[in-house]
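Note to self: keep these together.
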Amino acid sequence: MNSQTQAILATDKRIDGKAISAQVLSEVAEQVSQLQAQGVQPCLAVVLVGKDPASQVYVKNKLLRAADVGILSVEHYLPEHTSEETLLSLIESLNEDAKVQGILVQLPLPKGIDEIKVLEAIKPIKDVDGFHSSNVGGLSQGRSVLQPCTPSGCMRLLKHVCSDMSGMHAVVVGRSNIVGKPMAALLLQANCTVTLVHSKSRDIQSLCQMADILVAAVGRPEMIKQDWVKPGAIVIDVGINRVEKDGSTRLVGDVDYADVWDSVEAITPVPGGVGPMTIAMLMSNTVEAAQRQHALVSMNRVDGSRESP
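Structure:
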């Protein structure tokens, strides 16, 4: 690893997302206790439209983690045929409910519902997914906003491994609005030199070979091999792909974990890497949203303002 990489804090190449997410959840539980002592009960409203099996599993896991850390959850299960108008009406009521500090609409939504319109309907201060344009724009400007959960979880993993990323070359493979673009913004905030690689990039392999930090978020099973990775690189694998092999299904990332192992300084496994961090950061965002709204309400009581959080 080059001299810019700084001291590596982990003793093992494997970056344990389960262990680090447990640390985050412990911190969140303490913050929840502090809010409860002030008379504030953090509450997350989760909206699921339809019966997509994967979405049902994700929602179940989020609700379990919320209960673990003391966050109250309010669940709204809507049928597949729910109209956009009905969904927007529900979001408006949750926006105005002072007892709800976080709103999460599970994606994807059924056909016929405008995802962007729905996400834009959520108040930015309650947008615990960090998808509202105000939060997205604020992130690109370096302002303190609610950040998308997966990229912020990736940053927490990186900071566990490397104390200072300043000057390091980070390559992000994938330019999605949910992971790739906000990941690049967060790495820029950490003073990295950032390259964002996508399907139209030329000679992607050579670009990846330049990375001190390589973040794979493209959704192609085991696309990145050893000869794509710079020796001593830190690899964050966001991909979760189901593949069939020998009659069974297994989960793999966008990186060929076994193939790159000997070359990397540190790497996240799949599963057990980025996945647990996404839900942990959702809990963290919910508490942060509750803290901000409580502070705003307290300020309004002092100055007489009627502004609603």
